Amino acid sequence: LLGQILDHWFESEPLKATLATDAVIGAMASPHTPGSGYVLLHHVMGELEGRRGAWGYVAGGMGALSQAIAQAATARGAHIFAEKAVCHVLLGRDGEAQGVVLQDGTEVRSKLVLSNASPQITFLELIPQEKLPTEFVQRIRQVDTCSPVTKINVAVDRLPSFLAAPNARDGQPLPHHQCSIHLNCEGTQLLHQAFTEAAHGHPSSRPMIELCIPSALDPGLAPPGCHVVSLFTQYTPSLLADGQSWDEQARNAYADTVFDCIEDYAPGFKASVIGRDILTPPDLERIFGLPGGNIFHGGMSLDQLYFARPAPSYSGYRSPIPGLYLCGSGAHPGGGVMGAAGRNAAQVAIRDFRHL
């Protein structure tokens, strides 16, 4: 249990609760849920500029990272087809991958196919089910993709000023504006209560909020004096109680709850808002193809990790379809902007390619 780990090392309840947020982030779990300690470990995996476990902002926004990868690929001769949806994987006579077919009917032939789509999309939508082992299909269908995350992107006309650390007179960002700011984390019991509400189909009445202001470090993201605020919030169930849907009214009601909480810590925040974009779990699934809205393509619980990710006997990036590899968050070691799954999958695919 995460709670036991934190109790062993720390005394301060706010510190324990703030650390606990990284153990439940993206997970429909409480700090008291068995196995939650692993998710905390997962979030300090890797390093940034030599600092182990460190995180950072991407200059130019997260899209700039995708562009950097794209530029590296095209420099090596890759061709990138943006906005071209894949209809299905092209299979040969012996059931091996031979490329992909786009929705416009175009065939792209290849000896190898790597998919960083979720295991659900890759194997349940892009491959005929009769070409896959029955047990494998059943396992992919059973992957727990439950997600508590609602992402809210906010544009504001001034920097939030927190009661705990008021802004300087010149309105310039202070060190805490350049960090990850955790709200409603005074105690782990608060997080557990927020989880319990969502487990019963109700959005948390006092949500866990992780607030970042990337424009405090990267001014080019917003006009002078303005800022972009990224809110990673939970817990919000994919399916609401009593058959209610995440309609405009439900989305705005939850966002208002989040904004009311922020207002308690930073009076004037609500008045500074110019616009907001609310992405509930169904929105994250519809727009980005995240199953259940899960940012990890599947829960990071111990039964869905290591040799069991995405399925037993298929944790080595190869799939039941020869020449088809899984290289996204649904593969080992799981989600996060670290590239481990993609790098590992590429090495396996290169090794196989040499023998074709």
Automatic annotation (TrEMBL):
Keywords: FAD, Flavoprotein. One of its GO terms (molecular function) is oxidoreductase activity. Residues 34-178 form the Amine oxidase domain. Its main location: mitochondrion. GO terms for cellular component: mitochondrial matrix. Pfam families: Amino_oxidase (PF01593). It is found in: Mitochondrion matrix. It comes from the Eukaryota. The keyword Protein transport does not apply. Interacts with COX5B; this interaction may contribute to localize PYROXD2 to the inner face of the inner mitochondrial membrane. Belongs to the carotenoid/retinoid oxidoreductase family. Probable oxidoreductase that may play a role as regulator of mitochondrial function. This is Pyridine nucleotide-disulfide oxidoreductase domain-containing protein 2. It comes from Cettia cetti. The gene is Pyroxd2.
